[in-house]
Amino acid sequence: MSQQRLLITGIGSELGSLAASLLEQNPQFTDIVGIDVHPPRRRLRRTTYIRVEHDESAEFVQRIVSHRPDVIVHLGVWEPHGRLATNQARVATGNYANALCTALTQLDGLSRLVIRSGLEVYGMTHGLSPDENTVVAPSSTYGHMLAELEATTAVAAPATATITTLRFASVIGAHVPSPLGRLLRLPVIPFDPLSRAVFQVLGDDDAARAVVHAATHGHHGVVNIAAQEPVTVAAAARQGRRLVAPVVPNTWTIAAQLTALAGAPLPDHVIELLRHGRTAITCIDDAGYRPTQTTSDVIADLFSWPSVVRVAPNRRTERVA
Questions:
Q1: What is the DSSP string of 30-51?
Q2: Is the predicted pLDDT of residue 321 greater than 50, yes or no?
Q3: I need a labelling partner for 185 at 20 to 30 A (CA). Which of 111, 208, 220, 274 fits?
């Protein structure tokens, strides 16, 4: 097995940290570097972390080119209202993507490129489940962000590279800053009473395994990855013993304001999921990309997480002069 140099962008995210911890176990990667605004959320033993702000494009490019990676895993994507508000997420994602593309034009020996994307690129599918051959037609901010990322990296990547684009369903995990996950944990969940739409999610463990498989096997093309057995919003609420609040079409802006006050902002791609659903199928017959958990399994795990409990102090603290 030939030895390869690996570079991971977005290593400070939960998905990036988890994928890196799994990739470290593979002996084919002998020199691993991770870049992000924040440090990894897990203890990594063989990975060198480099902090680069999203607006430090020259530094970003220099770090990638000087490492001379054989494999790049690009997870430097900010979902709106995950860790950043919509406008900030769009700028940060675009900055990392543009800097990556600049670096790619200088990497003639790159053998493999893995890009994180999402099902949001398909837009509103009106009850249909797109496959990898479906035309991309984003209808949300996040969808446009991901579609632009896919297009620009495909053009910039050297001809030597195998490009794997992973289109994930909404990734949910115990430490994943997911706007959909926060919403489903609210006591009351908004939903469209006129819609019978269903949706799929993806556990962070399954997402990380898919990243590892792509980095080591290198399928050239797009792969849709979503947990099986889609559910409705009402069914997900029942599973978590939550109440549902019917929302008529013209009042979703008000619903978003109320959920934001409750700690769960509603970006437009999540509203799109609640109203129209989001599912996908795959034409790729590769067990390495197949999730092990169903959508109901992932949601059950979501509701099993301990809630935040506020404990009042039982004694007065002494004031220091």
A1: EEEEEEESS--SS--SSEEEEE
A2: no
A3: 208
Question: For the residues of 85-101, what is the DSSP string, one character each?
Answer: -HHHHHHHHHHHHHHHH
Would residue 76 count as lying in a domain? yes
**156 CB-near residues (< 8 Å, 6+ apart):** 100, 101, 102, 104, 105
pTM for the whole structure: 0.92
How many separate domains does the chain show? 1
Residue 59 included in any domain: yes
For residue 17, give its domain range. 4-177+200-227+280-288
Strands 188-191 and 243-246: parallel
Q: What is the DSSP letter of 76?
A: -
Inter-residue contact 274 to 232 (CB < 8 Å): no
Instruction: Confirm whether 56 is domain-assigned.
Output: yes
Q: d(Cα 21, Cα 47) in Å, to the nearest integer?
A: 9
Residue in 311, 265, 283, 286 with CA at minimum distance from that of residue 134: 283
Average pLDDT, the chain: 93
Q: What is the CATH number of the domain that holds 54?
A: 3.40.50.720
On whether residue 127 sits in a domain, the answer given is yes
Which SS3 state, helix, strand or coil, does residue 4 take?
A: strand
pLDDT tens-digit profile of 228-267?
999 999 999 999 999 999 998 889 999 999 999 999 999 9
C-alpha to C-alpha distance for 265 and 120, rounded to whole angstroms: 18
DSSP, collapsed to helix, strand or coil, labels residue 211 as helix
Residue 313 CA: distances (Å) to CA of 306, 309, 310, 317, 320: 21, 13, 10, 8, 17
- 173-189 pLDDT tens trace: 888 899 999 999 999 99
